[in-house]
Amino acid sequence: MFCTDDHVGYVLSCNRFDRGPDYFEMTRQWLEDYWNSYYFSHFRRDRYLFSADRAVNGAFGAFDSASMVYKHWVRQFYKQGYGGQQVLANYGVDATLADTWTMASLDGVNDLIKVMSVPPSGTYLYFDQNASGNSGRYFGCQDPTTREQRSCWAAVDQGDEFRFKDDAGANVLGQIYQYYYGAEYSQFGDWRRAWLGRGEGRRMYSRYDFRSGFGFFNRMVEVGHYYDQFGAMFAAVMPQVTFLDADDTSDQRRYSIPYYLVFGEELSRTFGNIWSNNEADRAPTVSYALDASGTPNPRRLTVTHQNRIHGERYVQGFSYPLDSGTPPADTKPSSAAIETTWSARIYSIYLGMALFNVNYDLDYSKENQVFRVGSAESFPVQSSDGYELVTVDDPTSGAKYAAIRSLAPDARMTPAVAAILQTRNRWQDYENAPAADKTIYLEIFKDGVRDLDMMRGMYAVYGKVF
Length: 466
What we know:
Elements: H1 23-36, H2 38-41, H3 53-77, H4 95-115, E1 122-127, E2 152-157, H5 167-181, E3 193-196, E4 207-208, E5 220-222, H6 226-237, H7 260-275, E6 285-290, E7 296-304, E8 334-337, H8 342-355, H9 363-367, E9 371-372, E10 387-394, E11 399-406, H10 415-432, H11 438-462
Parallel strand pairs: 2-8
Antiparallel strand pairs: 1-2, 1-3, 4-5, 6-7, 6-8, 9-11, 10-11
């Protein structure tokens, strides 16, 4: 179709460089282009000028474009307008377009959440939930809140140690993790190790050419995946949208349509899990890849992501997307230990609290409410109302921190409660630590207290409408 730059965004079918006959195909190519451009946007490949800009902008551009499909979908199918508006002709949408439009909206937000759960690439070892070595259980497979151990595949080398690349070095690496954490021994005569390649797995932290000498920090070799998470997070919280047939500046709240407006519970859960380091709830499944004959390859791993948002919850009888299913048992499917960077954590709470409330919805802010007991922030909580206080003492300052926990049997643990429990666990670790290690564990505990103070500060700013 012919359209000018002035129509981009206003008319959904008018976009620069899009492909496809309908909104589903448009969205699919945006998402495919994003995932397939990884090797071109994240590696220097001898280019003179190279930075993380293309990775950030690529993620934001893909998911911002996909969010426009969702925003127009919300307006079309959840209706709009009121008596005081100009009355324009409104033609119905046929069933096929309605279905593919809904599919496109669900694919966009599901792939955005998938960005937050990509595991690292590299050499993996398998840790059974009951495995234990001389240093206890592997911390990467442990829930920091409940301290529950899960079976998982964990990356133990991401290409940083060349001495672990050959079979002899890999066996040394396996022996180290078996001795300290009980990594599983393979029936193939060596340590159960396998490789998850770049693409399905992505290095979370950037690499730099440190051998190049002075200023090497300006010579990035590989862009860390956390830049993609930045871009996706910004796209997730942006509420702006424009329509050709509406005065969207005179009633901005009516046309403020972030993903959170419809998919609030799923996005709250995802952003909250990032901040509270709850990797198990968003981790994908890792298993042996199948070769051409359908036989599991014990040297190659593959990733299966589960879609977090399903159409039947929002459109009656609309079963899309289809469940990815569980890989065959002989491929040893298990949860992956993924990495969460500090930058991703702070952006998840900052962007969530600042922009999930653009329509005066303070639910996410309330989930992150932490306060000091006895201060002007605190207030009484009665169990008869269905809530209780979860507290932790800070012996280094004498303060007591608290969060509100619902007593409902199906209540989800909020980030605030998770932060309190994690800080409580850290103090127990300090008390149980040998004398030589107490200084280290005390600093770890103080890090938890700093998290609580940051949550207090965020709530003081974003926990109110005005």
